Amino acid sequence: MTTHPPPAPAAALMQQLADFAGFSDEEGALTRLYLSPAHREAVAWLRDRMTEAGMSVRLDPAATLIGRYEGTRPGLPAVLIGSHIDTVRNAGRYDGNFGVLAGVQAVAELNRRGERLPFAIEVLAFGDEEGVRFPVTLTGSRAIAGTVTPGAFDVADRDGVRHGDALRAFGGDPDRVGEAAKRPEDVLAYLELHIEQGPVLESEGLPVGVVTAINGARRFRITVGGMAGHAGTVPMEMRRDALTAAAEMILAIERRALAEPDLVATVGTIEALPGAVNVIPGRARFTIDLRAPQDSQRDKAAEDIRAALDGIAAYRRVTLAVEPIHAAPAAQCDPTLMDAFAAAIERAGIRPFRLPSGAGHDAMALATLCPVAMLFVRCKGGVSHNPAESITVDDAAVALDVLLDMLRTLKP
Ligand SMILES: [Zn+2]
What we know:
Order of helices and strands: HHEEEHEHHEHEEEHEEEEHEEHEHEH
Number of helices: 11
Radius of gyration: 24 Å
Largest sheet: 9 strands, mixed
Bound molecules: zinc ion
Number of strands: 16
Distance between the termini: 44 Å
Shape: elongated
């Protein structure tokens, strides 16, 4: 009888990610909604992988699957490694899932070598990061941090199923979600590996990067009021065209965002009213999404944009209404953990590179509980939320090595 060496951890991880993508609510595409049948199957499968990796496994009241690998003695504070296993509709297989399965694979590797660290490791598979099914998000990670929004379980999905009922049917318990919260003294850090979902690492020619912060966002709804009129009879110099004013405003927003690194501003929707080919638009509505790694930087940009818009409105004799519709603070990654990731990357012979995260992640919620850090992995073309999402086995290997090396250097 011949014995085969165990598969290289990264190859095993890639195979697991392929297998895991089979748990879908939709035939022929990956759609795994929170608390759905596919989520249930994914949890059952993951439970087995965690058990094989030497972890004790439980589902917490907010439906987060938690695998725990004890340290040099039982009951030590834990380093949490997590991400989400829900997906958008017609998703790629790496967003979220990579961070969870990489965490399990790292523990499997420690377990295979009989290695215990001076802290426990808990791998967390959150169920609700994408916020696709219910009008809530980060339920699992907020439950761990003890910050679930009141009323979060009273909302319903588009079929009228209440969040609380769906959670109960899944094996969770909305009335006991408070018990899912970790005490700060039981948690050393939260680490999240995630695909970048953007093109920066690829353009730098790097497999991984250290995340500095998860950008905070502010969103506004803008209404520009002019005067509707006949497209044929009102002379150009007498018009108060709301849409041309909005167009000038949008370019001013773009200019402001271009003026400094890491700041991004997007006008994603626009509407002209009444909306007819032969009518001068009397009203225009658009939205602004503004993000930056520092809240102060973002807020200064918001002020500058407001001033620019006021100036354009005055000069074009239109009214301007600015309505804030969303605000989320930026979450800073922990400098010590960032340095530990960077040192591990350097030891792997790779230039350590730091970048902010433009997208939101579970780490945002955990940042209120403990120090957090994220490692981004290069993804092809920066494509994400798309079946074409792709990473290489070599990059997965680097990410795994860096994670394991970094864990071995962490001091409790
Ligand atoms: Zn994600």
